[in-house]
Amino acid sequence: MTTDPLYLGLDLSTQQLKVLAVRSNLETVFEEAVSFDTDLPSYGVRKGVFVNDKDHEVYAPVAMWIEALDLILQRMKSRGFDFSRVMGISGAGQQHGSVYWAKDAESILSTLSPDKSLLEQLSLTAFSWEFSPNWQDHSTSSQLHAFEDLIGGPEALAKATGSSGHHRFTGPQILRFVQLRPDAYAATSRISLVSSFLASLFLGKIAPLDISDVCGMNLYNMETHSWDDRLISLAASPSGTDAAATAALYDKLGPVEPDGGKHLGRISPYFSQKYGFPPSCTIMPSTGDNPSTILALPLQPHDAIVSLGTSTTILMSTEHYHPSAAYHLFNHPTTPGLYMFMLCYKNGGLARENIRDAINAATGAHDHSWALFNKAAVETPVLGRKSATDPAKIGFYFPLPEIVPHVKKPGTYRFHVDGTSISEQQPTAWPATADARAILESQALSMRIRSAPLLDEKAPHPRRIYLVGGGSKNPAFAKVLGDVLGGYDGVYKLDVGNACALGAAYKALWAVERNPGETFETLIGKRWNEEGKVEKVMEGYKEGVWEAYGEIAEGYLQAEARVVRGEAKGQ
Ligand SMILES: Nc1ncnc2c1ncn2[C@@H]1O[C@H](COP(=O)(O)OP(=O)(O)O)[C@@H](O)[C@H]1O
Ligand SMILES: O=C(CO)[C@@H](O)[C@H](O)COP(=O)(O)O
Q1: pLDDT tens sequence across 3-39
Q2: For residue 269, what pLDDT band results from cuts at 50, 70 and 90?
Q3: Which protein residue has the closest C-alpha to ligand 2 atom 10?
Q4: Global pTM?
Q5: 295-347+462-538 falls under which CATH superfamily?
Q6: Could you tell me if the CB of 292 is within 6 A of ligand 2?
Q7: Which residue intervals of 365-474 are DSSP H helices?
Q8: Strand 188-193 relative to strand 411-418: parallel, antiparallel, unpaired?
Q9: Which atom of ligand 1 lies closest to the CA of 48?
Q10: ipTM score here?
Q11: Among the atoms of ligand 2, which is closest to the Cα of residue 96?
Q12: If you take atom 7 of ligand 1, which residue's CA is the nearest one?
């Protein structure tokens, strides 16, 4: 083994493929990215996906991801990256998306020639369907209700699988695939998640599913630690009673790897011969982008990570399996007995961008600068109240149907909340600039209210808020999130381009360098030095401010309930 090994972490997310390399001392030494829209324009995707509004489908071409992998490695090569030092690779993938391999996939993967590209060899015959459903897809209403009804409702499904039924979860997506494309399904030999698809390319054979990412399928029973036979049977055939179909789906899904640090095998000769990876380089399971993000730093109880990517998520680690239909629980990606708590908002980055663009357009500016948005967000008073007698301005900004809360009708909804009096407002009720603070407050209030069960009466607010993802560099976001969530040790930013690629690289490092039985937390904790890795960007808890948001919580939920019930008009 080289004396100064490197470990690669990749992140195959909605809009980009990113990679970074770390040394054994956790230092990040290299980063590279490929953007799907701008670097691979021939696919014609927008923000990484295709949208079919009529059927509520959102999906991405698998070939684009394959081409992105060769492109990012080529870019590393041309920048002089020393592949010969890479001892381990792990990855992260956007969650829930599924990839459908054809019968010949395994033999094509194991005989890839370095003289041709991955795309030339894989795109035509390795897949039974050329697309992968994206997490923003919401075409599976009837399927997700079938999942919930089978088990006894949303809470019962959450108890079994860690989540109630969700459009984007892979089980309902597979059932829809079975119903809509029976021929393609019959021609499918294996089904990967985006995470295990990425690991499969590096491994040169189909990789098992990951113990954490498998919880984003509505198929894996977290109480029994195994597939849920009832749900597998339903996903395999709408009647749920076709034993042969059930057995076939078990074969297509293949095994679940319980050890997040498992050495799945050596790197495929394609990559060692083409790029110079050592043949001994080991491939570890890839996990979901959110589980991977919680591996980017030693997260303590009561710490929260807010990921401000295309989606917005809040992530916490917990020892308790207290499932609820109001949030998601996943197995921890490295440590048995720990769980990841998550809320995922579809209207995250894109909804904030819409407000930014409206504010810019109102001033005649047509660029994508955040300057005016930020100025408005920090200058607008808490809850838009200029005086204590003003009603609070509460807005809900859902250009897409929302996951949390479950809102079917897209729209923008504005309310005045004054004690128990809640009245919907016209868009003219407040200036466009007031929306900047209102959207950040609204997103943060939803996180605060719904993550409260993870905190306790003695410590009702989080310790630290860590910001990651594209929006983490925005100081106005940090300010408002700090005001609402009130982390008593402050708001921090991870000083690294991509937290989930970093988490994946740390996972690869841990898998290769761990002593027998050494947990991820122990190994990373021993080597972790905060300096240069995290930066305090804002105070969190401010007396009086945090309490003001607490007082509005009930009114916020009532206004939100009107939107959920379809009683609000919206615009
Ligand atoms: N300075 C900024 N302020 C606010 N948001 C930003 C800023 N820079 C980038 N973003 C947002 O970050 C998002 C992309 O984040 P990223 O974590 O790369 O996404 P993903 O992992 O989903 O591909 C975009 O939606 C963009 O609006
Ligand atoms: O659906 C979820 C989580 O349940 C999303 O968070 C996806 O995992 C995609 O993430 P980004 O591409 O926004 O990072």
Answers
A1: 899 999 999 999 999 999 999 999 999 999 999 999 9
A2: very high
A3: 94
A4: 0.94
A5: ATPase, nucleotide binding domain (3.30.420.40)
A6: no
A7: 371-379, 434-451
A8: unpaired
A9: 23
A10: 0.96
A11: 1
A12: 471
